[in-house]
Amino acid sequence: MDDSPRQPQPADSAVPTVVNRTRIVLVRPQHPGNIGSTARAMKNMGLRDLVLVQPRKFPHAQATALAAGAADLLEQARIVETLPEALTGCVHVAGTTARSRYLSQPVYTPREWVARCTARVAEGPVALLFGCERTGLTNEELDEAQELVSIPVDAAYPSLNLAQAVQVMCYELHQGQPAALATTVRDVVPQLEMDRFYGHLERTLVLTEFLDPANPRFLMRRLRLLFGRLEPNANEMNILRGILTSVETRIHGHDKALR
Q: Is residue 118 assigned to a domain?
């Protein structure tokens, strides 16, 4: 009897898995070598969907050199100007972070997150965000994420290189791919539609004077966390948008009647 550890098999690209449905997004990467090393780490573990948001230097010879045999991933990597562009088509977003934050989303280890991610990829692509080398992801960038992922490290030296962090996450995704996918696919609202809803919600709250744009505090961030946890489906989103539209219509109609 063979007691050797079971190795994950190459994923069939036609079957949704955490490997072929996870998008790696580097936000404002500063060093081209990290972009090349990221491509190599991804290809080692079977991932291919790479998006770069405002890279400082790319294309670049150093990126190509450190990609080694993964230059094809660099060639097909998409370059965009904004984070919402990078998240187009994704049904769920997670951000990586090395520090605790006020009003933080739920935080998981890489292995915990991959286990949660397994069911989500049946619904559509999932994005995993990595911030720039010097500062990581900003609070505004993390607002796009429903969950956070933090890699456990020694407290005496908690600094991980960007490409190293990508390698750890890609390894966990590769190890997690044999898990069975959910048999029931939910009608999940894409991230782009969620962003439109948040904009609509903010406009309506300003209109009703519930939100003071001059002193917003953390209201919209709290609401993003709330609806991110709820994960409304398309029908529920239509109801929510309809409620907001009815409020806007009623207020505008009342204002006209007073004129």
A: yes
